[in-house]
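User: I'm putting together a small comparison set for a docking exercise, and I want a reference complex before I start. The sequence is below, and the ligand is adenosine-5'-diphosphate. Could you produce the 3D structure with the ligand included, as structure tokens?
Assistant: Of course. I'll restate your input first, then give the structure tokens for the complex.
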Amino acid sequence: MRKFLTWRKTISGKLTSIYLLMFIIVLLLLNTAVYLGLNYFLKNNARNSLDKTMNFLSTRLLQYNYYDTDLMEEISRSEGNIYFRVLSTNRNIRFQSNLLEDVEIPVTQGYQELKIGDRSFIYTTRFILDRGIFIGYIQLVREMTSEYSFLRSLLLVITVTSLLGAFAAIITAHTITRKTLRPIISIMDTAKEISGSDISRRLEISGPEDELTELTRTFNSMLDRLEKAFQGQRQFVSDASHELRTPISVIQGYANLLDRWGKEEVAVRDEAIEAIKKEAANMKTLVESLLFLARGDGNKISINKSQFYLDELIEEVVQETLLITDKLKVSTTGLEKMLINADRELIKQMLRIFIDNGIKYTPAGGELRIGLAREDNWALLTMEDTGIGIPEEALPHIFERFYRVDKSRSEKKGAGLGLAIARWIIEKHHGQVEIFSSPGHGTRVLVRLPFAGFQQ
Ligand code: ADP
């Protein structure tokens, strides 16, 4: 019983039930219509034949003599299944067919049912009028035994075939729905087998092109995306661990050096402390970048937008940069006044990343030019350096996490996370970023951010 109840809750159970219900309703309607139609037709036929005989008799009885038993017997014989009884005005039987002897037939209007033994009849009663004067009754009785037995057999046949039909419908509906839904069951089984450590399983796409093959394909492409995301996640963790190992090893190395020689030799001690501080700072930057990206992936970074002038922010960042480095000529020529609606802190972080890169990858004496102009509905920010540039084959990858063009070429090593963070910030502000570069000549970064007033 419980199995039946759970089956009813399954899709195939529901489909089978609906199919069955509709089949039974159609069958019932059809069979009832056939049965009632035939029932009506047969009874109507019998009444018509009673009426016809009655009309014939009424005129003939008066024309000749209503005691004309011969005529009645002849009609009974010729019709085969019609019997009669003639009554006087006080309802005494004048004469009747042999079959009706000892049978009570009430004088009532319309057509009535009558049973003699196990035979069925219908009868009707009429007045006999002679020139308008009531002279007695005539009752005509018609046998219906064969019609009723036919109707009973019909009912039996209909019931049996309906039950067989319903049974066949259950089996067919169940088989068809199970067969149709087999891909869903296979999806379920595969989904159960898939675990975090093995996401490489895929469903087989077979059968005709329909919603279920589409579902299978969608499921497989979802698995492709999940697998890619998993791999990305794994790669991220492995790259992050790898990046953290270097500063930790350096710190460990200098700590050992301090332990062995640093107690006596001041120069060694100072060098070690300096190196440890530098590596710890590197590590801090790296961990902060990792944390930023991890929180960004989990949508945990809140973006607090406000309206501010981008040109003023650029000037601010440039001034701060010039305090730390004077290796390049940094110019902000012709910055247009530009109001934007954005998270000031995040935009500042993005500016720092591009400006730091410009400085990192441009040899001393080079130049970094920053511009800001309006382009349609965008604030267009340009940062152009005269640095070492980026090879063409590296350009499609520079926004990837941990990607570095050449790990040995930069004096100040980065972990390859800066551009990934910058792109995340730009995308969260519905902006765009493009980088053009000519190796040996310099790099040009274009950032487009929406104007204030055009972005909700
Ligand atoms: P990193 O922390 O290594 O600078 P980024 O994500 O900021 O990481 O940059 C990725 C790589 O793109 C860098 O390693 C560098 O090789 C290259 N790159 C970025 N900006 C510049 C630039 N202005 N000039 C030359 N190369 C650049």
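The mean pLDDT is 87. The domain at 211-297 is CATH 1.10.287.130 (Helix Hairpins).
User: Thanks, that's exactly what I needed.
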